[in-house]
Amino acid sequence: MTKEAANELIQKVHGWSLVNEGDTLKLNRSWKVKTFKKGLEFFQIVADIAEAEGHHPDLHLVGWNNVKIEIWTHSVGGLTENDFILASKISALDSHHLFRKASK
Ligand SMILES: C[C@H](O)[C@H](O)[C@H]1CNC2=NC(N)=NC(=O)C2=N1
C-alpha cells in the first residue's frame, strides 16, 4: 500500500508507529518487559497469534528487557492490510502483567 494509505490506517492501531527502513514501510512498536523470561512469554503469545493469522512479525528482545516488534509483508516489500490486522491483535492482548508500567 502507499504511504498515504498507511498514514490513514496507522491511526487505528494504538501505540504503533510507521517507519521507513531502507525504503520499506514497516509497523513498529516497543515495550519494556519486567524480566527477560516475560519477554519470551510475550513472544510465545504473539507467536500463537501469528500462526493463527499465517502472518509473522519480526521479534526483537535486546538488552534483556527491550522488546520491539516490526511487522511488514516480505512478499511485497512493504505494508498490506494483514500487517495492520496483526498489529491490532497484538495490541488487544491482555499482557500488561508482562510489561513495566512506564512502557504501557
Ligand atoms: C506461505 C506463507 O503464507 C508466506 O510465506 C507468509 C508467511 N508469513 C508472512 N508474514 C509476513 N509478515 N510477511 C510475509 O510475507 C509472510 N508470508
UniProtKB/TrEMBL annotation:
<dbReference type="InterPro" id="IPR001533">
    <property type="entry name" value="Pterin_deHydtase"/>
</dbReference>
<dbReference type="GO" id="GO:0006729">
    <property type="term" value="P:tetrahydrobiopterin biosynthetic process"/>
</dbReference>
<protein>
    <recommendedName>
        <fullName>4a-hydroxytetrahydrobiopterin dehydratase</fullName>
        <ecNumber>4.2.1.96</ecNumber>
    </recommendedName>
</protein>
<dbReference type="InterPro" id="IPR036428">
    <property type="entry name" value="PCD_sf"/>
</dbReference>
<comment type="similarity">
    <text>Belongs to the pterin-4-alpha-carbinolamine dehydratase family.</text>
</comment>
<dbReference type="GO" id="GO:0005739">
    <property type="term" value="C:mitochondrion"/>
</dbReference>
<keyword id="KW-0456">Lyase</keyword>
<dbReference type="Pfam" id="PF01329">
    <property type="entry name" value="Pterin_4a"/>
</dbReference>
<dbReference type="GO" id="GO:0008124">
    <property type="term" value="F:4-alpha-hydroxytetrahydrobiopterin dehydratase activity"/>
</dbReference>
